[in-house]
Design brief:
Helix content: 25-40%
CATH class of the largest domain: Alpha Beta
Number of domains: 3
Order of helices and strands: EHEHEEEEEHHEHEEHEEHHHEEHEHH
Largest sheet: 8 strands, mixed
Low-confidence stretches: 1-61
Distance between the termini: 69 Å
Structural class: alpha+beta
Length: 432
């Protein structure tokens, strides 16, 4: 017996049993698709759902759900590895599966693989092979067992990183001795928006219309305030299962928008964990029939945008006297404001307007407990004289490899001229 979730408005079929015409006619894949096995049928009008039972004496009904949940460990040592990489846009995620002969514990045990780069906008058709290098592994929350998700970066057959491989340069920066010695910590706040599939309008919003103004939705509860909580909760648990260092989640200011936090993570690990968490979120929204958007300003007007605030500290910042180290880091960041903004996400100019808890994209600023600044320092950091800073400029679609590496480079490896440093110090002093 298999359970089918079907819309009563579309399937007025009652209970189907072996005595009906179903007995003599096998279920085809087309018929399965029409019934949407174990998924909710989504329509533009309100729909009630009923569970119908299908039986078949000749076992023509595939028990798909049972097959998806099969535990293969008692029968084979083989596992499934899902190789994941970043596509040609720099934000799209791609993946494909491979059978591995045994469970593995480290990415170095996995073989390199290849894909057709001409189909992802990363190679020409006449020389389309791109090589995947496994870099980080996580437990697979979708397949379970010993199966794994594999974060990869991409190279030419000659071993050169392709232009969209931002992990390679980040790994170089994080391997610098000065950076390693400072043990850079990152806590990344990933905001995202859930959209209705057909109309690409936020979840919970009336199609073509608007909900009530912002105010009750942030960390809110209730059917008229919280839209998509099941997706957020499912993602939370899936990340914990996978081994991602997710530290929390909450509903955001704009209805249909959510946030989760990853960290503290050290060095290159921060980027690996964010990319894997995004992949898991893409898969969950796929199953839910909802579109995931990382657009930094999905709805124009008096609505908050979506950012990816990046909290950052070094060993020196976390020790006594660290507040002075933080101020020096902020000074360096002010001098490279344009370089950071250019690397902090596409469309960020629509978000960083100086409104809706953002600073202007054209002006660098910092302050204590001020969410309208480029860089915010917490009250506890000021009080304790040590701690961390929050870079509020990155957009929700930023590349975490780029942002984390750039923060380390600007604050630990880059040195301004004395003249530039003096002028910047004067400007920053006027803000405090």
């Amino acid at each position: 017996m298999a359970q089918i979730l079907a819309a009563s408005m579309q399937c007025q079929m009652g209970g189907i049993t072996a005595n009906s015409s179903m007995k003599s006619r096998p279920m085809t894949s087309k018929m399965w698709n029409s019934l949407l096995l174990n998924q909710r049928i989504r329509t533009k009008s309100s729909t009630k759902f009923r569970v119908f039972a299908l039986t078949s004496d000749n076992s023509t009904i595939n028990r798909m759900n049972d097959l998806l949940n099969l535990d293969i460990r008692p029968f084979t040592n083989k596992i499934i590895a899902e190789y994941i990489w970043i596509g040609g846009s720099g934000i799209d995620l791609r993946s494909k599966s491979r059978t591995i002969s045994r469970p593995i514990e480290h990415p170095s045990e996995l073989p390199k693989w290849n894909y057709d780069g001409s189909s992802t906008g990363q190679a020409p058709g006449e020389d389309s092979e791109v090589i995947l290098y496994p870099q980080a592994i996580f437990k697979d929350p979708f397949r379970g067992g010993n199966n794994i998700l594999v974060i990869c970066d991409a190279y030419t057959p000659a071993g050169e990183p392709i232009p969209t491989n931002k992990r390679h340069r980040a790994a170089q920066i994080f391997s610098e001795k000065k950076v390693v010695d400072e043990v850079p910590w990152y806590g990344i706040e990933q905001e995202y928006t859930l959209l209705q599939t057909n109309v690409k309008w936020p979840l919970g919003w009336p199609v073509g219309g608007y909900p009530g103004p912002q105010g009750p939705y942030y960390c809110g509860a209730g059917a008229d305030k919280s839209f998509g909580r099941d997706i957020s909760d499912a993602h939370y648990k899936a990340c914990l299962y996978a081994g991602i260092n997710i530290s929390g989640t909450n509903g955001e200011v704009m209805p249909g928008q959510w946030e989760y936090q990853v960290g503290p993570s050290v060095g290159i690990e921060a980027g690996d964990h964010i990319w894997c968490s995004r992949y898991i979120l893409e898969r969950i929204t796929e199953q839910a029939g909802v579109v995931l958007s990382l657009d930094p300003k999905p709805i124009e007007g008096d609505w908050n945008g979506a950012g990816c605030h990046t909290n950052y500290s070094t060993k020196s910042m976390r020790e006594d006297g660290g507040f002075e180290v933080i101020k020096k880091a902020i000074l360096n960041l002010s001098l490279r404001h344009k370089e950071h903004i250019s690397a902090y996400g596409e469309g960020n100019e629509r978000r960083l307007t100086g409104k809706h808890e953002t600073a202007s994209i054209n002006t660098f600023s910092w302050g204590v407990a001020n969410r309208g600044c480029s860089i915010r320092v917490g009250r506890d950091t000021e009080k304790n004289g040590k701690g961390y800073l929050e870079d509020r400029r990155p957009a929700s679609n930023m590349d975490p490899y780029v942002v984390t590496a750039l923060l380390a480079e600007t604050t630990l490896l880059w040195e301004p001229t004395l003249e530039a440093e003096a002028l910047a110090a004067q400007k920053l002093a006027l803000q405090v």
